Amino acid sequence: MLLVASGLTALLSLAPQDPDPVPPRVVGVDEHGWPVFAEQSAAGAGTRERRPGGEESRPSGHLDERGSDSVGRRRAEAGPDSSPARRGPALSEVFSRLGTVTDFESLDGVAAHCRLTVFDERGAVLGTREWSHEADLRDGVLRDRLALPDRRVHGRDGERVFASLHGLRMDSEESLAREQLALFGTLLRAPWCFAARDRYELVATRDDASDPANGPACRVLEFRAVDRPDPSAATRYVLRCTADTMQPLSLEYQLGHGRSREVRFGDWRQVDAVRLPFRLEWVNRSGTVASVMEIVELSVGHRFPERQFRPLR
After folding, report:
1. Per-residue pLDDT for 158 more than 50?
2. N or C, where is the chain less crowded by C-beta within 10 Å?
3. How many angstroms separate the CA atoms of 181 and 12, rounded?
4. In the chain, what are the domains?
């Protein structure tokens, strides 16, 4: 869940598909293995990092690449969803399909090992990279930690963001870290993040009976970022779901530079009381797949200490 500068951000940006005569085109990979786009600079990379559980980590489950679920606990009774946001019947239908906000937050801390595969226009593999993403889903505070290439780490605790190398601060990479954390933190939490009234406003819902990408009979939910202190965060999101079951199909988003991107959800698996997508596909405007991100391993139920999302020094 990482990217360098605006490269992968551009690939992942989302919003309505406004006319774009020159679609983004992957022309290669940089020295870290991230895609290089014809109109932009190279994208960043990620690397896998294993952290010891420690006294305050409590892994309660694990999902491997084959989808086997060793999560021992289940919510015996979901009870009423006490989350602060209800966004009307449309979003409630999505949560009834995937699990409520309370169900999602009950995962506590999650640790994901991810793999990104980048393709050229003919579908040939250009490169593959792996990295780890740790996130605290409790209490609505945005806490994420990305293990990046060359033993770099990007982290955030609310609005406080840091970048480090071998534990030493790298203030020159703070803006890059902010960009990566905003994007991949949102993707990890979608669609439950859109229930937060202090961050998103549901501005429109509509039926789309002729969506060429997702087929007929789609339900479209459009959100606007209410307060965006982080300029790298997206300004607008469009969530497309099946009309009959409200299963999310894709998320389109738009960053501050105005370009939009679409990511399609796939390989949904049950994790405790919620269903999560284990495969994300970024598509070009032509509909071809530019890159695929897979969650290879996922563990939940961690009790991460807050210092895990702050710089060591």
Report:
1. yes
2. C
3. 13
4. 7-73+85-309 (2.50.20)
Rounded-to-integer distance, Cα 218 and Cα 63, Å:
30
- Look at residue 140 and give its three-state secondary structure: helix
* Sequential DSSP letters for 160-210: EEEEEETTEE-GGGHHHHHHHHHHHHHHHHTTGGGG-TTTEEEEEEEEES-
Of 255 and 61, the one with more pLDDT? 255
Of residues 302 and 287, which shows the higher confidence score?
302
Rounded to 5 degrees, φ, ψ at 200 are -135, 145
Residue 180's region, left for phi above 0, alpha for psi from -120 to 50, else beta, is alpha
Structure tokens at 160: 């406080």
- 191, exposed or middle or buried, with CB in 10 Å at 0-12, 13-18, 19+? buried
Average pLDDT on 293-307 reads 94
Question: Does the structure show a pLDDT above 80 at 187?
Answer: yes
